[in-house]
């Protein structure tokens, strides 16, 4: 039996629709292919406020990210930047961009990775540390937690949960612990030295979330600050650091490790519509 031109068209619709459905299952977001997540932190208790500049090594005089007036205790949200080598530098707050940097470091930002570049230590020994942030999903029903010890008033502290689980022992000033997996639940975080509890704070661990816990100095003692770095399907902040002018942003669009939801859903719906159209039309042709 010969195939009519109308049937050829309907068959083409069906094949294209089916192809789009399968394509939707394998779409990789552009940001995961060629970008990096980068954030900045000021964790030196006695250092003054600074302006932080991020510039490509290929064009060091043209900063792509500037965060102004950064005070102690600030941990910015993530900025999505192209992968590649960067120079990160700090200048006194309000200083001209041509002012020599107080301190600088280089970062080779790898595709798909996430980093925190932090000014740490006392002002006399100030340095920039590049921390690699592990934003991969924790095991099911758990979160992942690390501790950043930025309180100079205590040379070492222990950090634990109220069930006794240890998140870090003898954590020295200006150091960062490895990540620990923690069951999703309501906890109390405790910072202790010997038998003395110096600070504590409630801590809700959500399944699939990644956290950084900051230990900070305050005029009245230690403070515990919890930062959500990532959720089960989202790097908590994309475009969090304003480019060129500094400041914070409240935007936090979704990012997934395999599929870009708007593209995937759009392609999937398009494919299903085409398949449905083709199937209905072909059934109509058979009846006629």
List key phrases describing it.
six-stranded mixed β-sheet, 288 residues, Immunoglobulin-like, globular, 3 helices, four-stranded mixed β-sheet, 44% strand
Report on this model:
With about 290 residues, the protein is an alpha+beta fold. It folds into 3 domains: about 5-25 and about 265-285; about 30-135 and about 235-260, Immunoglobulin-like, CATH 2.60.40; about 140-230, Immunoglobulin-like (Sandwich). Helices cover about 20% and strands about 45% of the residues. It is built from 3 helices and 18 strands. It has helices at about 5-25, 30-35, 260-285; strands at about 35-45, 50-55, 65-70, 80, 85-90, 105-110, 115-120, 125-135, 140-150, 155-160, 165-170, 175, 180-185, 185-195, 195-205, 210-220, 220-230, 235. The strands form 4 sheets. Strands 9, 12, 13, 16, 17 and 18 form a 6-stranded mixed sheet that branches. A hairpin with a 6-residue loop joins strand 7 (about 115-120) and strand 8. Helix 1 (about 5-25) packs antiparallel against helix 3 (about 260-285). The longest helix has 27 residues, at about 260-285. The chain is globular, with a radius of gyration of 25 Å. Mean pLDDT is about 75; it is low at about 10-30 and about 240-288.
Cα-atom Rg, whole angstroms?
A: 25 Å
Poorly predicted parts: 9-32, 238-288
Number of helices: 3
Structural class: alpha+beta
Total strands: 18
CATH class of the largest domain: Mainly Beta
Distance between the termini: 16 Å
Q: Please state roughly what percent of the residues sit in beta strands, choosing from under 5%, 5-15%, 15-25%, 25-35%, 35-45% or over 45%.
A: 35-45%
User: What order do the SSEs take from the amino end to the carboxyl end, as H and E?
Assistant: HHEEEEEEEEEEEEEEEEEEH
């Amino acid at each position: 039996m010969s195939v009519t031109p109308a049937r050829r068209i309907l068959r083409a619709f069906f094949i294209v629709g089916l192809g789009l459905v399968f394509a939707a299952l394998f779409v990789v977001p552009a940001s995961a292919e060629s970008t990096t997540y980068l954030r900045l932190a000021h964790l030196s208790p006695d250092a003054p406020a600074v302006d932080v500049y991020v510039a490509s090594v290929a064009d060091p005089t043209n900063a792509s990210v500037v965060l102004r007036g950064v005070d102690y205790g600030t941990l910015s949200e993530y900025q999505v930047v192209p992968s590649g080598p960067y120079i990160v530098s700090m200048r006194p707050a309000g200083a001209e961009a041509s002012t020599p940097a107080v301190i600088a470091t280089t970062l080779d930002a790898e595709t798909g990775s996430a980093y925190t570049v932090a000014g740490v230590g006392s002002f006399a020994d100030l340095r920039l540390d590049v921390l690699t942030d592990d934003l991969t999903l924790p095991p099911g029903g758990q979160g992942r937690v690390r501790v950043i010890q930025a309180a100079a008033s205590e040379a070492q502290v222990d950090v634990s949960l109220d069930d006794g689980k240890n998140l870090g022992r003898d954590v020295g000033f200006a150091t960062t612990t490895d990540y620990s997996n923690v069951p999703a639940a309501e906890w109390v975080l405790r910072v202790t030295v010997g038998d003395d509890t110096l600070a504590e704070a409630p801590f809700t661990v959500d399944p699939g979330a990644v956290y950084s816990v900051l230990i900070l100095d305050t005029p009245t003692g230690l403070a515990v600050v919890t930062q959500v770095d990532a959720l089960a399907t989202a790097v908590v902040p994309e475009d969090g650091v304003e480019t060129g002018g500094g400041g914070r942003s409240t935007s936090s669009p979704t990012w997934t490790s395999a599929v870009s939801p708007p593209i995937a859903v759009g392609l999937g719906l398009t494919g299903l519509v085409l398949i449905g159209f083709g199937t209905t039309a072909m059934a109509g042709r058979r009846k006629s």
